[in-house]
From TrEMBL:
Keywords: Pyridoxal phosphate, Transferase. It comes from the Bacteria. Its cofactor is pyridoxal 5'-phosphate. Its EC number is 2.5.1.48. NCBIfam families: PRK07811.1. Gene3D superfamilies: Aspartate Aminotransferase, domain 1, Type I PLP-dependent aspartate aminotransferase-like (Major domain). One of its GO terms (molecular function) is cystathionine gamma-synthase activity. Belongs to the trans-sulfuration enzymes family. This is Cystathionine gamma-synthase.
Length: 380
């Protein structure tokens, strides 16, 4: 079954009770039993819920995995991965990553005795120099948030397998429409399903997908024991979003390309970060592991002018100034004061997150309206 068909039918079947094509919203916390322990596969909705089960099967299908898990947020999904580790373990992470991930790693799990190395991973050979006997996990984002750096998943997997280390990939920006890390050697794929998977800015959710049953069983245990699950209504909304993922992503990519090219020629713009440019440092790797280049773009204004960047995002009319990304509507953000404010300024700026950086999530509106909006905001 090819991807576009998987988004509609992958892991799905008509409801057994009445043949409903869409999985029903099982808005229940518990299930009747005929005798103690005698039930129809469901006993309590923290552990399992039929709507969530349908969603988890869909997650596994579109990522070419065997097991999917749905969580209450992307950070809850990352938290579950971290709970596979023990005090004294070490993690090698990309230095350019989502601010919430950095906060979880440094403010929560460092306190539990886990050590993190935040490094540049654009050259995957750099990873191996940080590996030691305590290294248990390599954490990759690609494309990275917000600098759009590309990390070679296959090369990272080669390092991980050589040293018997888990490789987890945050695939939020690319989605399985563009990139399937399990096929490239990753052990775990993570999504903030709040973003492109849901696609309509109406839910908060996280997802994990794996191939290995032993690893899946550990994560299912953590999911149930910790309880950071999503509800049936959000599961239903995410399933609905997945069914249009392929058509939405096609337009995100088309619009993203047009916006990136417009910004690249604008006299007030200093740098544009988008992996589709041949000048992008890892463009060839992006071409190898991605099917297109997505709708996420970051750019800086000339002179690294903080005030100018703030005025631009404040004066946008079609783009909405808001946290998050991946919805059908275009969003704009100022990472230094919004999504990445939890990262110290010195650490931010080492990765390129300067005060003038603006991040765009290019939606599926008419491209002429998006470019006209950027033009008037920059002129203002």
């Amino acid at each position: 079954m090819k991807f576009n068909t998987k988004t509609i039918h992958g892991g799905q079947e008509p409801d057994k009770a009445y043949g409903a094509v869409m999985p029903p919203i099982y808005q229940t916390s518990t299930y009747a039993q005929t005798t103690p322990g005698g039930h129809k596969g469901y006993e309590y909705s923290r552990t399992h819920n039929p709507t969530r089960t349908a969603l988890e099967k869909s997650f596994a299908s579109i990522e070419n995995g065997n097991y999917g898990l749905a969580f209450g947020s992307g950070l809850a999904a990352i938290d579950a991965i971290m709970k596979l580790l023990q005090p004294g373990d070490e993690v090698i992470s990309t230095s350019d990553l989502y601010g919430g991930t950095y906060r979880l790693f440094t403010k929560i799990f460092e306190g539990f005795g886990i050590k993190f190395h935040f490094i540049g991973m654009q050259n995957a050979a750099n990873i191996e120099s940080y590996v030691n006997e305590n290294t248990k996990l390599i954490w990759v984002e690609t494309p990275t948030n917000p600098m759009m750096n590309i990390i070679d998943i296959e090369a990272s997997s080669a390092v991980a397998k050589k040293h018997n280390i888990m490789l987890a990939v945050d695939n939020t920006f690319a989605t399985p429409y563009l990139q399937r890390p399990l096929d490239l050697g990753a052990d775990i794929v993570m999504h903030s399903a709040t973003k492109y998977i849901g696609g309509h800015s109406d839910l908060v959710m996280g997802a994990l997908v794996v191939k290995d049953k032993k690893l899946a069983d550990k994560l299912y245990f953590i999911q149930n024991a910790s309880g950071a699950i999503c509800g049936p209504m959000d599961s239903f909304l995410a399933l609905r979003g997945i069914k249009t993922l392929h058509v939405r992503m096609q337009r995100h990519c088309e619009n993203g390309k047009a916006v990136a090219e417009y910004l690249a020629q604008h006299p007030a713009v200093e740098n544009v970060y988008w992996p589709g440019f041949e000048s992008h440092p890892n463009h060839e790797i992006a071409k190898k592991q991605m099917d297109d280049f997505g709708g996420m773009i970051s750019f800086t204004t000339k002179g690294n002018d903080y005030e100018k960047s703030i005025k631009i995002v404040e004066n946008l009319k079609v783009f909405v100034l808001a946290e998050s990304l991946g919805g059908v509507e275009s969003l704009a953000g100022h990472p230094a004061s919004m999504t990445h404010a939890s990262i110290p300024k010195s650490a931010r700026e080492k990765t390129g997150v300067v005060d003038s950086l603006i991040r765009l999530s290019v939606g599926i509106e008419d491209i002429d309206d998006l470019i006209a909006d950027l033009a008037q905001a920059i002129a203002t």
